[in-house]
Amino acid sequence: MKFVIVFSALFAVAMCASVPQDSAHAEVIRYDNDNIGVEGYHWALETSDGKSFSEEGSLENVGKEDESLVVRGQYSYVGPDGVTYLVNYIADKNGFQPQGAHLPVGPQ
């Protein structure tokens, strides 16, 4: 569980670190960090350059041998082409599963 929480935090930092130079002066306009506890968490962030991030995690099968953390979230940003891209994701026992209109879809 600690690994997934650390991974989620690093993912958010990486998303912020990959900001183009024209966004160098972006400011945080909304930050929510609530409901952080043993069984889960929730946070959200929005910046003045049009980026937004939100994520929540919760434990499944609490107290059982197969206890695991399920993380659901989304992020959006304005690309160099002026289009706003949105990615929804889930990370659970099946791995990281992103979805977005601009992302390729594998064979079904």
Largest sheet: 6 strands, antiparallel
Mean pLDDT: 82
Order of helices and strands: HEEEEEE
Please give the number of β-strands. Answer: 6
- Side by side, the strands of the main sheet go 1-2-3-4-5-6
Shape: flat
Low-confidence stretches: 17-21
The amount of beta strand, in percent, is over 45%
Helical amount: 10-25%
Q: Report the end-to-end length measured between terminal Cα atoms.
A: 29 Å
Secondary-structure map with pairings?
Elements: H1 2-17, E1 28-37, E2 40-47, E3 52-60, E4 68-78, E5 84-92, E6 95-99
Describe this structure in words.
The chain has one helix at residues 2-17; strands at 28-37, 40-47, 52-60, 68-78, 84-92, 95-99. Strands 1-2-3-4-5-6 form a 6-stranded antiparallel beta sheet, with helices on one face. The protein has 108 residues and is mostly beta strands. The model is unreliable at 17-21 (pLDDT under 50).
Descriptive labels:
108 residues, 15% helix, mainly beta, 6 strands
Summarize this, please?
The chain is mainly beta and 108 residues long. The protein has one helix spanning 2-17; strands spanning 28-37, 40-47, 52-60, 68-78, 84-92, 95-99.
